[in-house]
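Hey, can you fold this one?
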Amino acid sequence: MSSATGSRIVVTGATGNVGTSVVRRLADDPDVASVHGLARRIPDRPPSGTEWTAVDLASPRLDLAALFRGADAVVHLAWAFQPTHEPATTWRTNVLGSLRVFDAVAAARVPVLVHASSVGAYSPGPKDRPVDESWPTHGWPDAAYCREKAYLERVLDTFERDRPQTRVVRMRPAFLFKRESASEQRRIFGGRFLPGPLARPELLPCLPDVPGLRMQALHTDDAAEAVRLALRTEVRGAFNLAAEPAVDVRLLGEMFGARPVRLPRAAARTALAAAWNLRLVPASPHLFDAVLRLPLMDCTRARVELGWRPEHTAPEVLEEFLLGLREGAGAPTAPLHGGKAS
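Sure. Predicted structure:
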């Protein structure tokens, strides 16, 4: 897709954390004539200038090609994080659903596919230096999220080889946050027993310092801008997306005014595994293992080829997100509905 006025863009997963930002950013772009959002449940107050269709990508009877026909690009964002205790269920939605999207893109002859991959697709890597997009993407096999993201990277390798006429862009963002996603992410990772109002500096005199717990963050709106730029630019391939600086216990300690306390990996994992097995928290210990091993990403390619610069620093992203947690912030879509935990 070029930057010519009149582009029609279809967005899957359009009501989620990333989807709401992408739809809003594209709807505000004068070079985009039409944004068609696909989601399991249509939002109560959709942005002006958008059209919507309720779809379930897990359904094998869904005729996606008919919805994609005539589109200039498909932005595939749909993803299910839960239930972590039932990996076959997330596989059906995330992997088999994505295969249906890719097949429909080919059948409808859509010229551009932008796929939301993730830092989670990367194989274990260094925490003391960033890696570029050539780092292996075999994921951490024990974590369903990483396993699914890595599998789709291999699928897209074949797709690009067999269909070179389709321009494929893979976005590999760091962990994505914004104020409106706070309630959703509390439910996904913390569960119903984690009250959002507890995310206050004065209630955290110390923070666990787990070896390897160093990662990157990004504001979802900045990820959406990268998608918009990729649609306007004749680029292909993968792009790392992250804000500076990397997030570690030192940075969090400064933000919270809390003292880091060393906690061995084994002790932290044992506590999380016990809570997960008792279904007290939905975040799995397997994902925790993966986070400890994910590399830091070099975002030079996005800066040079897309002209992309994140508007928010990592501390700004986290401060906005924590404010959202305390307020029970959300948005008028089914995935992002707000509300404080009891």
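Residues 1-5 have pLDDT under 50 and may be disordered. Let me know if you want another pass with a different chain boundary.
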